[in-house]
Amino acid sequence: LAISYNRNRTYDSDMFLKDRTYNSTTNDHEEGGTDVVNFAYAGNINNQFYFGVAVGITDMRFEKSNIYKDDQYTDNFFSEANGAGCNFNVGLLYQPTDFMRVGVGLQTPTLYNIDETWSFNKTRDDYPYKIHTPMKFSAQLGFMVGDRANIGLDYSMRNYTRMWGEFANLKMRLLEENIKEICKTQHTLKVGAEVNIIGGLD
Protein backbone atom coordinates (compact mmCIF):
# COMPACT_ATOMS: atom_id res chain seq x y z
CA LEU A 1 0.00 0.00 0.00
CA ALA A 2 1.41 3.39 -0.98
CA ILE A 3 0.08 6.94 -0.49
CA SER A 4 1.84 9.98 -1.96
CA TYR A 5 1.29 13.61 -2.87
CA ASN A 6 3.08 16.43 -4.69
CA ARG A 7 2.34 20.18 -4.56
CA ASN A 8 3.94 23.25 -6.14
CA ARG A 9 3.03 26.90 -5.50
CA THR A 10 4.56 30.09 -6.87
CA TYR A 11 3.94 33.62 -5.55
CA ASP A 12 4.91 36.88 -7.26
CA SER A 13 4.74 40.19 -5.42
CA ASP A 14 5.85 43.79 -5.76
CA MET A 15 6.98 46.02 -2.90
CA PHE A 16 7.25 49.81 -3.20
CA LEU A 17 9.96 51.41 -1.09
CA LYS A 18 11.43 54.91 -1.47
CA ASP A 19 10.08 55.42 -4.98
CA ARG A 20 11.46 52.07 -6.11
CA THR A 21 9.72 48.81 -6.95
CA TYR A 22 11.18 45.55 -5.67
CA ASN A 23 10.04 42.40 -7.45
CA SER A 24 10.06 39.10 -5.57
CA THR A 25 9.19 35.50 -6.37
CA THR A 26 8.62 32.66 -3.93
CA ASN A 27 8.49 29.06 -5.07
CA ASP A 28 7.18 26.51 -2.58
CA HIS A 29 7.36 22.76 -3.22
CA GLU A 30 6.19 19.84 -1.08
CA GLU A 31 6.10 16.14 -1.73
CA GLY A 32 5.97 12.98 0.34
CA GLY A 33 4.26 9.70 0.99
CA THR A 34 4.07 6.50 2.98
CA ASP A 35 4.44 2.84 2.04
CA VAL A 36 3.37 -0.27 3.93
CA VAL A 37 4.42 -3.89 3.32
CA ASN A 38 2.66 -6.63 5.29
CA PHE A 39 3.90 -10.16 5.93
CA ALA A 40 0.78 -12.12 6.90
CA TYR A 41 -0.39 -15.59 7.82
CA ALA A 42 -3.99 -16.78 8.22
CA GLY A 43 -5.86 -19.99 8.90
CA ASN A 44 -9.05 -21.49 10.27
CA ILE A 45 -10.19 -24.26 12.58
CA ASN A 46 -13.18 -26.36 11.47
CA ASN A 47 -14.37 -23.51 9.23
CA GLN A 48 -15.70 -21.83 12.35
CA PHE A 49 -12.77 -20.09 14.04
CA TYR A 50 -10.58 -17.91 11.78
CA PHE A 51 -7.38 -16.10 12.69
CA GLY A 52 -4.75 -13.94 11.05
CA VAL A 53 -1.47 -12.28 12.04
CA ALA A 54 0.67 -9.79 10.16
CA VAL A 55 3.83 -7.79 10.61
CA GLY A 56 3.74 -4.41 8.91
CA ILE A 57 6.88 -2.62 7.73
CA THR A 58 6.25 1.07 7.01
CA ASP A 59 8.32 3.91 5.65
CA MET A 60 7.62 7.60 5.20
CA ARG A 61 9.26 10.48 3.36
CA PHE A 62 8.63 14.21 3.18
CA GLU A 63 10.43 17.02 1.37
CA LYS A 64 9.83 20.76 1.43
CA SER A 65 11.74 23.46 -0.40
CA ASN A 66 11.22 27.21 -0.45
CA ILE A 67 13.16 29.55 -2.72
CA TYR A 68 12.77 33.30 -2.32
CA LYS A 69 14.23 35.75 -4.84
CA ASP A 70 14.10 39.50 -5.16
CA ASP A 71 16.26 42.18 -6.75
CA GLN A 72 18.95 41.83 -4.08
CA TYR A 73 18.64 38.52 -2.23
CA THR A 74 18.12 34.83 -2.81
CA ASP A 75 17.23 32.56 0.12
CA ASN A 76 17.02 28.78 -0.09
CA PHE A 77 15.27 26.70 2.53
CA PHE A 78 15.07 22.90 2.36
CA SER A 79 13.84 20.24 4.77
CA GLU A 80 13.68 16.50 4.38
CA ALA A 81 12.40 13.72 6.64
CA ASN A 82 12.82 9.99 6.10
CA GLY A 83 11.71 7.28 8.49
CA ALA A 84 10.76 3.67 8.92
CA GLY A 85 8.71 1.76 11.46
CA CYS A 86 6.95 -1.50 12.17
CA ASN A 87 3.76 -2.76 13.78
CA PHE A 88 1.96 -6.01 14.53
CA ASN A 89 -1.61 -6.93 13.60
CA VAL A 90 -3.79 -9.76 14.85
CA GLY A 91 -7.37 -10.59 14.00
CA LEU A 92 -9.85 -13.23 15.17
CA LEU A 93 -13.21 -14.18 13.65
CA TYR A 94 -15.69 -16.60 15.21
CA GLN A 95 -18.76 -17.88 13.36
CA PRO A 96 -20.91 -19.72 15.93
CA THR A 97 -23.84 -20.17 13.52
CA ASP A 98 -24.44 -19.87 9.79
CA PHE A 99 -26.13 -16.50 10.24
CA MET A 100 -23.81 -14.72 12.72
CA ARG A 101 -20.10 -13.85 12.92
CA VAL A 102 -18.09 -11.97 15.53
CA GLY A 103 -14.61 -10.54 15.00
CA VAL A 104 -11.98 -8.55 16.88
CA GLY A 105 -8.71 -7.01 15.71
CA LEU A 106 -5.74 -5.25 17.23
CA GLN A 107 -3.02 -3.16 15.61
CA THR A 108 -0.10 -2.28 17.84
CA PRO A 109 1.37 1.24 17.79
CA THR A 110 3.87 1.97 15.04
CA LEU A 111 7.25 3.19 16.26
CA TYR A 112 8.91 5.41 13.65
CA ASN A 113 12.61 6.24 13.62
CA ILE A 114 12.88 9.48 11.64
CA ASP A 115 15.87 11.44 10.41
CA GLU A 116 15.05 15.05 9.57
CA THR A 117 17.36 17.56 7.90
CA TRP A 118 16.92 21.34 7.73
CA SER A 119 19.07 23.64 5.66
CA PHE A 120 18.96 27.40 5.10
CA ASN A 121 21.38 28.70 2.49
CA LYS A 122 24.68 27.15 3.69
CA THR A 123 23.55 26.21 7.20
CA ARG A 124 22.51 22.60 7.82
CA ASP A 125 21.15 20.78 10.89
CA ASP A 126 20.11 17.17 11.46
CA TYR A 127 17.39 16.07 13.88
CA PRO A 128 16.87 12.33 14.52
CA TYR A 129 13.78 11.48 16.58
CA LYS A 130 11.13 8.83 17.25
CA ILE A 131 7.35 8.98 16.95
CA HIS A 132 4.98 6.50 18.62
CA THR A 133 1.54 6.30 16.93
CA PRO A 134 -1.66 5.19 18.72
CA MET A 135 -2.89 1.62 19.00
CA LYS A 136 -6.05 0.61 17.10
CA PHE A 137 -8.69 -1.79 18.39
CA SER A 138 -11.62 -2.95 16.26
CA ALA A 139 -14.64 -5.24 16.64
CA GLN A 140 -17.15 -6.50 14.09
CA LEU A 141 -20.55 -8.14 14.29
CA GLY A 142 -22.41 -9.51 11.26
CA PHE A 143 -25.77 -11.17 10.65
CA MET A 144 -27.26 -12.98 7.68
CA VAL A 145 -30.96 -12.28 7.08
CA GLY A 146 -32.28 -15.26 5.19
CA ASP A 147 -30.33 -15.85 1.99
CA ARG A 148 -30.85 -12.39 0.52
CA ALA A 149 -29.30 -9.86 2.94
CA ASN A 150 -26.68 -9.29 5.62
CA ILE A 151 -26.12 -6.57 8.20
CA GLY A 152 -22.76 -5.55 9.62
CA LEU A 153 -21.59 -3.43 12.57
CA ASP A 154 -17.98 -2.23 12.72
CA TYR A 155 -16.47 -0.43 15.72
CA SER A 156 -12.93 0.93 16.01
CA MET A 157 -11.04 2.93 18.65
CA ARG A 158 -7.78 4.89 18.59
CA ASN A 159 -6.40 6.62 21.68
CA TYR A 160 -4.45 9.56 20.24
CA THR A 161 -3.56 10.83 23.72
CA ARG A 162 -1.05 7.96 24.02
CA MET A 163 1.17 9.20 21.19
CA TRP A 164 4.65 10.35 22.18
CA GLY A 165 7.93 11.50 20.70
CA GLU A 166 11.59 11.16 21.62
CA PHE A 167 14.53 13.31 20.52
CA ALA A 168 18.17 12.51 21.38
CA ASN A 169 16.95 9.79 23.80
CA LEU A 170 14.87 12.39 25.66
CA LYS A 171 11.08 12.43 25.73
CA MET A 172 9.48 15.41 24.00
CA ARG A 173 7.56 16.55 27.09
CA LEU A 174 6.06 19.66 25.53
CA LEU A 175 4.89 17.67 22.50
CA GLU A 176 3.29 15.05 24.72
CA GLU A 177 1.53 17.72 26.80
CA ASN A 178 0.16 19.31 23.62
CA ILE A 179 -1.00 15.92 22.34
CA LYS A 180 -2.86 15.18 25.59
CA GLU A 181 -4.44 18.66 25.52
CA ILE A 182 -5.48 18.70 21.86
CA CYS A 183 -6.00 15.06 20.88
CA LYS A 184 -8.74 12.76 22.11
CA THR A 185 -9.73 9.12 21.94
CA GLN A 186 -11.48 8.47 18.63
CA HIS A 187 -14.46 6.11 18.47
CA THR A 188 -15.90 5.12 15.07
CA LEU A 189 -19.05 3.07 14.50
CA LYS A 190 -20.07 1.95 11.03
CA VAL A 191 -23.32 0.22 10.08
CA GLY A 192 -23.81 -1.39 6.70
CA ALA A 193 -26.21 -3.67 4.86
CA GLU A 194 -26.24 -5.64 1.62
CA VAL A 195 -29.28 -6.95 -0.18
CA ASN A 196 -29.39 -9.43 -3.06
CA ILE A 197 -32.49 -8.36 -4.99
CA ILE A 198 -32.05 -10.99 -7.71
CA GLY A 199 -32.10 -14.60 -6.58
CA GLY A 200 -29.27 -16.87 -7.65
CA LEU A 201 -26.55 -14.20 -7.49
CA ASP A 202 -23.74 -14.47 -4.89
Could you please describe the fold and organization of this structure?
With 202 residues, the protein is mostly beta strands. The chain is built from 1 helix and 12 strands. The protein has one helix at residues 173-182, and strands at 2-17, 20-45, 49-69, 74-97, 100-107, 111-120, 123-132, 136-145, 149-159, 164-167, 170-171, 185-195. Strands 1, 2, 3, 4, 5, 6, 7, 8, 9, 10, 11 and 12 form a 12-stranded antiparallel beta sheet that branches.
Rg: 25 Å
Distance between the termini: 28 Å
Largest sheet: 12 strands, antiparallel
Please tally the helical runs, counting DSSP H or I stretches of 4 or more residues.
1
Poorly predicted regions are: none
Inertia-based shape: elongated
Secondary structure class reads mainly beta
Count of DSSP E strands? 12
Task: Give the overall average pLDDT.
Answer: 85
**Helix and strand succession?**
EEEEEEEEEEEHE
Tell me roughly what share of residues is in helical segments: under 10%
Strand content: over 45%
Describe the secondary structure blueprint for this structure.
Blueprint: E1 2-17, E2 20-45, E3 49-69, E4 74-97, E5 100-107, E6 111-120, E7 123-132, E8 136-145, E9 149-159, E10 164-167, E11 170-171, H1 173-182, E12 185-195
Antiparallel strand pairs: 1-2, 2-3, 3-4, 4-5, 4-6, 5-8, 6-7, 7-10, 8-9, 9-12, 10-11
